[in-house]
Design goal:
Elements lengths: L1 H27 L26 H4 L6 H17 L17 E10 L12 H4 L17 H20 L14 E5 L3 H14 L7 E2 L20 H13 L14 H11 L5 H4 L12 E3 L7 E3 L1 H18 L3 H4 L7 H19 L2 H20 L5 E6 L1 H10 L20 E8 L5 E9 L2 H6 L10 E3 L14 E2 H22 L2 H14 L37
Parallel strand pairs: 1-6, 2-3, 2-6
Antiparallel strand pairs: 1-7, 4-5, 7-8, 8-9, 8-10
């Protein structure tokens, strides 16, 4: 009883914090704007060059291509090593010689309740009681709303400092755009972010589908499929498993599976005792690629992803880290090991080259259009981790691991940020960053400002070169996105669209001679849905609840 009262008390405190935060957001909009700093990101920046220098200052004019490559590699190491310090990991600063002109953000929603509710498989897979969530199944939690408002406040201070928007900005028609998937958690995330960034403006959050359903733009589904495409996609997915191919996809999960069983105390659970779940075994993954559906999976990796996802969300919400782990003492590395299960699930389903181009096409179109929209200053697109992962993969992102966070690929609330700058040579440049709250910032509800910013990381992209200041030519970014769109067009012309596939079978049947006596069977699509109480893993979420 005391435990329940304590949790209810924390929920009340969180609600009060959100109320105070909303009031502070409005009042702080009336305060004096912060003087512009060199980077606009605070004094805790992890610099890739000596203090007091810009990246441009640190690179001699006669630098060779080899020197530039060495420095870029060191920059990536510097960002990653920041995780081992108390500093907030930061991408290198942009020189004051550049002027910010536009920002386009693709965001994952913030903290939600698990995608399975009370009485579901989650409750039978452990003898312990899960955290009492502040929201219904799959919906944005109270903490998620607070964190997203904080992130919006930070973006406001950063954009004011960069002089992209004035203090107490009330945008003219077309200057800003907020567009979110129709699921509750994505709509609410966009709303909270907007309230932090534009506290005195009336902001419309676009919704292009029925409430709490999936918008086509944010649904990471296969838009075309034929035997040749499926063969290529499966070969690319199998490559993730090394020499063992598909059978080796989760062979590296042995330790993670054992840790998950231990944290859940699986052998004491109802599911274990009735034989429903006796453990997690590598090597039984089955990949499902069906036209006009999201890539799917069956096997222990899917089941374990659902459970690992719920544990990580519980760790974000539960004040006592030991209680979040059901009485076990876990290190940061242990939590990362648990989350590696979910990371592998997402990697397999959404980041192979062919699948990524296929499922990310609608969002790539949105991003390119927003970057090219002349009157736009700021765009916020809100979806799921599969959206962020597939867009990055379609653009050819190099492998990376985010520092300072349990989720090292697409953490909760992460923002994929495209920043357009005018350079000193009057050319347009683009910085691409992942901006996210560290696990500590999430758990401690640490306020964000220019002195204590969220973490950020600048990934690299295959075949794309940054200049001495760490920026891409904007034209190169356009070209990379267009290359992905062109590849989509090429593949879809040979594979056929969902609409073509839907009409092909009736047309063939009508044209077939009556005397043939038999009909060629149409390709069967698996449409079986997981029971509501046991959805597939999230976007990872995605697979679980129409895309999480």
């Amino acid at each position: 009883m005391k435990k329940n009262n304590r949790k209810q008390g924390r929920n009340v405190m969180a609600f009060l914090m959100l109320t105070v935060l909303m009031i502070t957001t409005v009042l702080s909009g009336c305060s004096a704007a912060a003087p512009k700093t060199e980077a606009g990101t605070g004094s805790t920046v992890q610099e890739a060059v000596p203090a007091g220098e810009t990246a441009q200052d640190a690179v001699p004019a006669e630098e060779t291509a080899e020197d530039a490559a060495t420095e870029e590699a060191a920059e990536q190491v510097s960002q990653t090593e920041a995780a081992a310090t108390d500093e907030i990991p930061q991408a290198p600063d942009v020189s004051d010689d550049y002027t910010l002109k536009k920002v386009v953000v693709l965001s994952r929603h913030n903290i939600r309740a698990p995608l399975s509710g009370e009485g579901s498989f989650l409750s039978t897979a452990t003898p312990h009681t899960w955290f009492q969530w502040t929201a219904d199944t799959s919906q944005l939690s109270l903490r998620g709303g607070i964190l997203e408002t904080m992130m919006g406040q930070y973006f406001r201070k950063w954009l004011e400092n960069e002089e992209l928007i004035p203090e107490n900005y009330q945008p003219e028609d077309g200057e800003v755009r907020f567009y979110a998937n129709a699921k509750q958690r994505t709509q609410a995330t966009a709303r909270y972010f907007a309230s932090g960034m534009l506290p005195v403006a009336i902001v419309d959050i676009e919704r292009h589908a029925d409430y709490d359903t999936m918008d086509e733009t944010f649904t990471p589904k296969l838009h075309f499929l034929n035997d040749a495409f499926e063969k290529t996609a499966m070969e690319e997915i199998a490559a993730f498993g090394g020499d063992k191919g598909l059978e080796g996809l989760d062979s590296q999960m042995t330790d993670a599976y054992a840790l998950l069983e231990d944290v859940l105390d699986l052998q004491d659970s109802e599911a274990y005792k009735n034989g429903e779940l006796t453990g997690f075994t590598p090597g039984n993954i089955q990949i499902k690629l069906n036209l006009d559906e999201e890539p799917g999976m069956e096997g222990d990796l899917k089941t374990s992803t659902q459970l690992a996802d719920a544990l990580v969300l519980q760790y974000y919400e539960e004040e006592d880290p030991k209680e979040a782990a059901f009485g076990h003492d876990l290190t940061m590395e242990d939590w990362q090991t648990l989350d590696s299960i979910k990371e592998l699930y997402s990697k397999i389903l959404f980041t192979s080259d062919s699948v990524a181009v296929n499922v990310a096409q609608p969002l790539l179109v949105e991003i390119k259009n927003e970057l090219q929209e002349e009157n736009r200053r700021f765009t916020f697109l809100c979806g799921h981790d599969s959206n962020v992962a597939s867009v990055l993969a379609a653009m050819g992102v190099e492998e990376y691991s985010l520092p300072g966070t349990v989720e090292r690929d697409t953490p909760i609330g992460v923002k994929l940020v495209f920043e357009v700058y005018e350079g000193p040579d009057q050319q347009d440049y683009c910085r691409i960053r992942l901006v996210y709250q560290t696990t500590q910032q999430i758990r401690e509800l640490e306020p964000l400002d220019l002195d204590t910013p969220p973490a950020s990381f600048a990934p690299d992209f295959r075949g794309m070169e940054k200049n001495a200041d760490g920026l891409y030519l904007l034209e190169d970014v356009y070209t990379r996105i267009q290359e992905a769109l062109d590849l989509y067009d090429t593949l879809s012309l040979t594979a056929g669209s969902a609409e073509e596939a839907a009409t092909a079978a009736p047309a063939a049947e009508e044209a077939a001679p009556a005397e043939a006596g038999t009909e060629a069977p149409a390709r069967e699509e698996e449409t079986e849905e997981a029971p509501e109480e046991e959805p597939a893993p999230e976007e990872t979420e995605e697979a679980v609840d129409d895309a999480a």
